[in-house]
Amino acid sequence: MPNLNENYLKLQENYLFSEIAHRVAAYTKQHPEKNVIRLGIGDVTRPLCQCAGEALLEGAKEMMSADTFKGYGPEQGYEDTRKAIVDYYKRSGVEINASAVFVSDGAKSDTGNITDLFAHDNVILIPTPVYPVYVDSNVMCGNKVEYIEGNADNDFLPMPDWDQHADIIYICSPNNPTGACYNKSQLKEWVDYARKNQAVILFDAAYEAFVSDPELPRSIYAVEGAKQCAIEFCSLSKTAGFTGTRCGYTIVPQELVFTASTGEEMSLNAMWNRRQCTKYNGTSYIVQKAAAAVFSEEGIRQCQENLEYYRENARVITDTLSDLGIRFYGGVHSPYVWFECPKDMDSWTFFDYLLHEIQVVGTPGAGFGENGKRYFRLTSFGTYENTVEAMKRFRNLLETNKKQKVRVLLIGKVFFLKKT
Ligand code: PLP
């Protein structure tokens, strides 16, 4: 019998989205007549843009002809795709070396696999709340993590504690689930802190394309000194609707060189290259061709049209919350809107409340860590019609509740006055 990786026993029993799916399935089985609206899982609804779709078809045609057929490609990605990514960064003023770019099948794989490069005795800082893959992938390989607290006091943008040492720091900006986005001076402080500690920042920029304020950094490399301390992950999933097509990339600058216990110099770029060449056989040619088309100026323009559709949905959600006097985060440079559950409910209670009362599915904040337990996430990735309908139901539910509360208070007051 093999000895098993018992770290898996330490993982939370149910992955967030399977628990949501389970509760929704149980509800729809009991109430098949109800129209359930899903604003929970972070999957997109807009189709691929024209540029990407045409490139996929062209790529498929090339694969059907002996003259243009492609077998195994370079593990790091085709030159054209890497160059298209470099040019995309250049257009926003960030210089990247093409050999630092590794094309992959998505940011989930890369953010999960990056633990391969590090030993297991590091001080690892992970924000709470955040995308659960960072914690789970560290737990799986037996790493201990320390949490950096995002909360209402810091607008869910935790800053470094200069008295605490760190070796590895995860940052997700714009953040999933809170939608909070660091500005340049805040990211600069993280970069300065990382350099002082000789730490590595693992920067997840999966939602960078949602940032519409040119003053806000879409890449950590917009901050001076970041190439000396940061790896950046990015994804085409949300930028270009590639959740099903699958493509992402990771940037590991050549500047990231550390001294091993033997005294030898180790380059993270060389290590990631070795890791990918050993365990990954490259992203499919067809998909990379589509990815290169996405990063062209026309491709990005077309993708931004889709993102504008989601931004409109986000406005529908945030306008409703504002009208109801509910404080929220995100929804501007992010597809996610994050808010405290009303009426002192915890997030799973609020999830069940919305599902049962108005048949709207959101995501309980508890799934993103301890600090999410009293918060809730709605996404703008639904259709416009569904978002409008969901928010109409949400508004009615909470306004009715408010009126009922006032009525109870008034009845109580009248009763009290009569008695006195
Ligand atoms: N990083 C963050 C912060 C995410 O929210 C997600 C998906 O929801 C991913 C990475 C995964 O991206 P991909 O679809 O490229 O694997």
Mean pLDDT: 94
Instruction: Estimate the strand proportion.
Output: 5-15%
Helix content: 40-55%
Query: How many helices does DSSP assign?
Result: 12
> Shape from CA axes?
globular
**Distance, first to last CA:** 78 Å
* pLDDT < 50 runs, ≥5 residues: none
Distinct ligand kinds: pyridoxal-5'-phosphate
Please provide the count of β strands: 15
Question: Could you state the order of secondary-structure elements as H and E?
Answer: HEHHEHEHEEHEEHEEEHHHEEHEEEH
Structural category is alpha/beta
Could you give a quick summary of the protein structure above?
The protein has 420 residues and is an alpha/beta fold. Helix content is 41%, strand content 14%. The strands form 4 sheets. The protein has a 7-stranded mixed β-sheet, sandwiched between helices.
What does it look like?
- The chain has 420 residues and is of the alpha/beta class.
- 41% of the residues lie in helices and 14% in strands.
- It is built from twelve helices and 15 strands.
- The chain has a seven-stranded mixed beta sheet with strand order 2-8-7-6-5-3-4, with helices on both faces. It has a four-stranded antiparallel beta sheet with strand order 11-12-15-14.
- α6 (184-197) links the parallel β5 (168-172) and β6 (200-204).
- α4 packs parallel to α5 and α10 (297-323) runs parallel beside α12 (384-419).
- The radius of gyration is 23 Å and the shape is globular.
- The relative contact order is 0.16.
- The model has no long low-confidence stretch (mean pLDDT 94).
- Pyridoxal-5'-phosphate (PLP) is lined by residues 42, 106-108, 111, 131, 172, 176, 204, 206, 235, 237, 243, 248.
